[in-house]
Amino acid sequence: MTSSRIRIAADSVCDLPVDLADRLKVHIIPTYVNIGRESIPDDGESLDRERFYRELPAMQTAPTTAAPSPGDAEAFYRAILAEGVDHIVSIHVPEKLSGTLNAMRLGAEAVGSDRVTLVDSLQLTFGIGIQVWGAAELAAQSADLATLLDAIERMRQRTRVYAIIDTMEYLRRSGRVNSLAASIGGLLKIKPIVSVNEGEVVPVSRQRAWSRAVERLRALTLEQKPLERLAILHIANRSGAEKFLESIHDSAPSDTLIIETTPTLGAHIGPGSIGVATLKADWRR
Amino acid sequence: MPNSCINGRTLKRRIQAGVDSLAQQVETINQLNVFPVPDGDTGINMYHTLQRAWQEIAELDSEDVSLIADRFAHGALMGARGNSGTILSQLLRGFADGLAQASMLSPAQLRSACQAAVQQAYMSVAEPSEGTILTVAREATASLQRCAGSGVSLKEMLKTLTSAAEVSLDNTPNLLPILKEAGVVDAGGMGLVAFLRGLHCGQTKTPYSRADHSLSAPKAGAAGRYGYDVQFLMLGQRLDMARARRDLEELGWSVIVVGDEQTIKVHIHVDNPAIPLDYAIRMGAVLDDIVVENMDLQSQRTVVGRSTAQASAGHDSFDIAVIAVADGDGMQAVFRDLNCAAVIQGGAGHNPATEDFISAIKQLNSRQIIILPNDRNIFMAAQQAADLIAGKKVTVLRTDTVLQGVSAMLAFGDATDADADLETTLAKMNGASSATSSIEITRASRDSKFRAMNIKQGDHIALLDGMIAAAAADIEAVIVAAFAELDLTEYELATVYFGADVTGLECERLVRRLTMTIKGLEFESVYGGQSLYPYLISVE
User: Fold this and answer.
1) B228-300: which CATH architecture?
2) Mean pLDDT, chain B, as a whole number?
3) Which of B211 and A193 is assigned the larger pLDDT?
4) pLDDT confidence of residue B212
5) What is the pTM (predicted TM-score) of this model?
């Protein structure tokens, strides 16, 4: 049996649902959300997402987020290798936005750089998840490393993430994307649509009314047809996500997911937002 | 016939009398607003245009009528404000061109110069509408035909011209229903009449002329090719534009030659770009803002450029800047906040001049510029500036209100990576501006009747997309009535920009009451600081 000698790893920003990650044998390392003096791992258990988003608007001090430590990364990789795995392909949140990849690199060096291949997904939330999912399926079919990396690269080029930001308040407060905030403007209440491009969050559209923004999001989603994979993303807005899915129902693949985005991102974006992650079917060429 | 011609000095004296005559009528003309809103500014716009024109000749002492007329026209072109001011500047430009090199003005030349003036003015307007200053100029000029060859003196001709203009002015309400409804004559036409009256009264003698004003007929390039697009400015003292146009038309196709004796803008398509440049130098002009583009390669590159952009994607790669006109520090801040590269102070009652746009355009590095005039009456002056700029592609997007301008500005940059070219950007901005409804609240500047409404001076008036929707003493009633005209199921958000004379607290109070009265809409209040309009409300 040579199967599954390569395993796929990722951080929790990829938003792959826990059951799906288990089924695909994907290993997820949690990032951290700091609330007050507490640092809570975003492992799907320690942090109640629903409660977090409910309490977020009223939090005295804005929560911050943190990458795993190099020590966490080392332990994470050692545990995977201990399962008899030859190699790990480790797909992560963009280096431009997070210290995660750096920590993972240090962890990889500690276990032997030749055992781990690091990939900058250049995406966020399920835009990472799409690449992880596809890679895990190929790994399960015993694809070799070159085939895997080539597939990830092609999926990366065909992956899009768009999101309507309900209020700019959280992005501004987080201070992580000042140039984004400046390009959107701050005097009027704006519901911008943002995208992730080459590992950076960029504005795509500035709408004032929610319904117009949803209309635009729908058009952007349908531009990516035919879709092999689709996830509707939301932050404390499941009904908005469901309604949106209904509006593009005919173009949505049967395994379309509705995902509440990780608090690691959600803390910077705020409740109310909805978005999509898409994979265009032509990535297989 | 010593009394039948006038020289430059006399013409200058008459022009001065014309400017003075208009100056005395400014308030009267301002009042001739179709709607009784306090943005009546035709009088002041025409006066500013002529005032700036006068500056060009105030210190000039010359016998030469064509020099006087040319300098005066140049000043008017630069100082043009408002649609009537811009049309007036085109009339003067055409008049001066019609005189060509004449040193004295004879009756025959007056006639042909007036014809050239009318022709030029009509050409400058995309869709000329009758019952306006254009009609007055045209009908007045037509009256001169009756004196053709009859040995009439120049003084008598000016009298004929002026009386015919007066008759034509009185007839404008019959041609333009909106004037009749408002019970006024056309304001721009009245400004022209006032100027002519002055010209006529301040009068005396002499000279001769040559009319030359044909638009270049585009010639086709060699089959299947585009050739080179060459644009440049010719600068000089006494450039012969008519000759330049005639000669350049022989050298290439799609020829556009506009300007005056000191500045000529040339736009020409040729197979060899050296030829028109060489010609212009030989004509004695100094060249500036030279741009040569290979259109064959460009058309190929468009295809290639698209696919590369798709692969690499760069949002900062598109070099388009926006210039907006806005009144009020709050309103101006909103435009800057939305990444407007330059904001020109102006609006109802104080329209910016063509040269204000020109200097704003020159200060920007961008090669592609979009202007948001944000007022019906500012559009033409902006367009005139765009026409006079070489080396940059300047497009005026027709935004009729500052609120439409904000919507257009929001859509600026609303493009995914692959399609952020000028055309797409303009289409998106245009779409956004027309999807917004504008409610403008102001006060009646006089008693009037409109449709079934009896409007008293001082009443509040609501304009919905430029038309009077309601008028009453109570401001809130007027606003609510304007909202009632809209199908509110189509809208979601109303943004209330409060003016300089309203406090934030007053606006908040108003918004709170509106939120209760008008269901299903979200309200937001923003400081605009504009004058004359206590509230500007965009609904989207």
Assistant:
1) 2-Layer Sandwich (3.30)
2) 84
3) A193
4) 24
5) 0.75
pLDDT tens digits along B378-427: 999 999 999 999 889 999 999 999 999 999 999 987 754 445 688 888 99
Domain boundaries, chain B: 2-201, 228-300, 313-434, 437-539
Q: Enumerate domains of chain A plus CATH numbers.
A: 6-31+67-157 (3.40.50.10170), 159-284 (3.30.1180.10)
Q: What pLDDT score does A1 carry?
A: 40
Which own/partner pairs from B57-60 qualify as long-range (CB within 8 Å, at least 24 positions apart)?
Answer: B57/B12, B57/B15, B60/B12
The pair of three-digit structure tokens given for residue B147, joined into one six-digit string: 């004196």
Residue A207: its chain B contacts at CB < 8 A? 410
Q: Does B492 touch chain A (CB under 8 A)?
A: yes
Of A185, A187, A197, the CB nearest to B417: A197
Q: Is the ipTM of this complex over 0.90?
A: no
Provide the angle, in degrees to the nearest 10, between the axes of the packed helices A126-140 and A145-157.
150
Q: Is domain B437-539 in CATH 3.30.470, yes or no?
A: no
**Using one digit for the tens of pLDDT, what is the confidence trace for B352-375?**
999 999 999 998 888 899 999 999
* Cβ partners under 8 Å of residue A23, min gap 6: none
For residue B150, pLDDT beyond 80: no
Residue B283 belongs to what H/E stretch?
A: none
**Do the chains contact at A205 and B414, CB–CB below 8 Å?**
yes
- Angle formed by the axes of helices B402-411 and B422-434, nearest 10°: 140
Q: Which two tokens stand for residue A203?
A: 């504005």
Q: Which residue has the tokens 């040193």?
A: B103
Flag whether residue B495 sits within 8 Å of chain A, measured between CB atoms. Answer: yes
Q: What is the mean pLDDT of residues A158-176?
A: 88
pLDDT at B415: 55
B165 near A CB under 8 A: no
Compute, in degrees rounded to 10, the torsion defined by CA atoms B504, B507, B508, B510. Answer: 160
**Domain B2-201, CATH among 1.20.1640.10, 1.10.10.60, 1.25.40.340, 3.30.70.260:** 1.25.40.340
CATH 3.40.50.2300 assigned to B313-434: no
